[in-house]
Amino acid sequence: MDFRLKGKSVIVTAASKGLGKAAAMEFAKEGAKVLISSRSEPALQKAVDEIREATGNTTIDYAVCNMKDAQEIKQLVEKAVSLNGTVDVLINNAGGPPAGSFLDMTDEDWQHAFELNLLSFVRTIREAVPFMKKQGEGHIVNLASSSIKQSLDNLVLSNTMRPGIVGLAKTLAQELSEDNILINTVGPGTIETDRITELNQTLADKQNKTAEDIRKEAEENIPMKRYGQPQEFAKAIVFLASGANTYITGQSLIVDGGLVKAL
């Protein structure tokens, strides 16, 4: 299948590691011009070097960007346009909010989760869409969580903010389709990343178990009996954000090995 991504200008946020980096790697394999961001310049430089070496694609660059800072988001999009002429694809990603129950969370925790996991997506889309409108096409994929379909224990902030991303995408699918801008949401199940390692350790400490115990229990609940790999998740993103996708918009996809039972 021809994804028609060669030479396309792609932004992937929060991409120095984990799912964002995996997505950037897959876009680079397709010959796209990829700009990645995160808050850590050393981590970004390392990721860029690794992606270039692994793919042979030298049109990979980075921008330091705090996703809670509106001005830095504006500068991120401006850099993509300066480097590559436009923005064809926007992959919205941000680190997950802290684990905990409702009474654990302060106003500051709620504000942080709102700014990082919902408002940041609003801001990146607002900056990128004018360039997509000008050229008459574009693709946006928002990375969320399986909590967009089924709430997750001890993750009240994620359960609250992530569904907001789906509402945003559904609304924008209506508003942007006439300009041939497609927007979708992809949620990971249990994918083997640092985030899952962190959550497993938090749960292990709470239950007086080892992280390995938690992993084994989790894998038993997954119909495929294993954690997913970042590249498996990334391939779904690449399809939805590619020229091969011409009619799917406003949809939510879970990549979870069959874990979520909700319809």
Automatic annotation (TrEMBL):
<comment type="similarity">
    <text>Belongs to the short-chain dehydrogenases/reductases (SDR) family.</text>
</comment>
<dbReference type="Pfam" id="PF13561">
    <property type="entry name" value="adh_short_C2"/>
</dbReference>
<dbReference type="InterPro" id="IPR050259">
    <property type="entry name" value="SDR"/>
</dbReference>
<protein>
    <submittedName>
        <fullName>3-oxoacyl-ACP reductase</fullName>
    </submittedName>
</protein>
<dbReference type="InterPro" id="IPR036291">
    <property type="entry name" value="NAD(P)-bd_dom_sf"/>
</dbReference>
<dbReference type="GO" id="GO:0016491">
    <property type="term" value="F:oxidoreductase activity"/>
</dbReference>
<dbReference type="GO" id="GO:0008206">
    <property type="term" value="P:bile acid metabolic process"/>
</dbReference>
<dbReference type="InterPro" id="IPR002347">
    <property type="entry name" value="SDR_fam"/>
</dbReference>
<keyword id="KW-0560">Oxidoreductase</keyword>
